[in-house]
Design a protein that fits this description.
Number of helices: 9
Radius of gyration: 17 Å
Bound molecules: pyridoxal-5'-phosphate
Largest sheet: 8 strands, parallel
Shape: globular
Order of helices and strands: HEHEHEHEHEHEHEHEH
Strand content: 15-25%
Number of strands: 8
Helix content: 40-55%
Structural class: alpha/beta
Distance between the termini: 24 Å
Strand order of the largest sheet: 7-6-5-4-3-2-1-8
Length: 225
């Protein structure tokens, strides 16, 4: 299928839940983003600062850019002037840096805290216990320009659906608990970013509000992140 037909089928799949599609365009040329844009897609995800900045420069300015990969602190300054959401905030230091650069740019940058749920896929992210401890300590309240809007996770890359379901269900209950404990009055704490090309239907069934889909829309990448 072409980009437009893939997008249309994804939008349809998302309709019952009202979740948002982040079209992951990393490694694909700006032309491919332009094609998806022409079909009506507005939210795109990239996972390196260099590639994100290069595409930002040449593509329409009403694109809503999400940074979905592991972000090094020294790269925050390059994307802070325009990035809408950073999905994978995995350390307190990174949150502070995003706050600092957001403040410099007179902006509030939406952030998701990454939770490490997969068996082997990534070493990044807070454990559930670390996250509870971090939020309870409250230091994040001094970083208002990095606005915590929810959680993000990458499930184990496995054909074992039971495993993946359990991970997504665990994320949903962690999200609900943290919402009650720390964000009951914060309307912006509402995002649960989980689900990729291979597992987004399961993620939607467990309450994902943002799915990050790349290869299904744009085809296979030459290399993976
Ligand atoms: C690349 C990437 C995706 C998209 O993966 P696909 O399998 O191509 O859909 C989603 N999330 C993150 C964090 C990624 O790095």
């Amino acid at each position: 299928m072409d980009i437009k037909s893939e997008l249309e089928s994804l939008w349809q799949a998302l309709q019952p839940s009202g979740a948002t599609l982040v079209a992951v365009s990393k490694t694909h040329p700006a032309d491919a983003v332009a094609e998806a844009y022409a079909a009506g897609q507005r939210v795109f995800g990239e996972s390196t600062a260099q590639e994100l900045c290069a595409k930002y420069e040449i593509l329409p300015k009403d694109i809503i850019w999400h940074f979905i990969g592991h972000l090094q602190r020294n790269k925050v300054k390059y994307i802070a002037p325009f990035v809408h959401m950073v999905h994978a905030v995995d350390t307190p230091k990174l949150l502070r840096e995003i706050h600092k650069e957001g403040e410099k740019n007179g902006r509030q940058i939406d952030c998701l805290l990454q939770v490490h749920i997969a068996l082997e896929e990534t070493k990044y992210g807070f454990s559930a216990a670390e996250l509870r401890e971090y939020l309870a300590a409250g230091e994040w309240r001094q970083a208002p320009n990095a606005r915590i809007c929810g959680l993000m996770a990458i499930a184990t890359n496995t054909p074992d659906e039971t495993r993946v379901q359990a991970e997504f269900a665990g994320m949903k209950s962690l999200f609900d608990a943290l919402k009650t404990e720390h964000f009951a009055d914060a309307d912006h704490f509402k995002e649960l970013s989980m689900g990729m090309s291979a597992d987004f239907p399961l993620a939607l069934a467990h309450g994902a509000t943002l799915i990050r889909v790349g290869s299904r829309i744009f085809g296979h990448r030459d290399y993976s992140e």
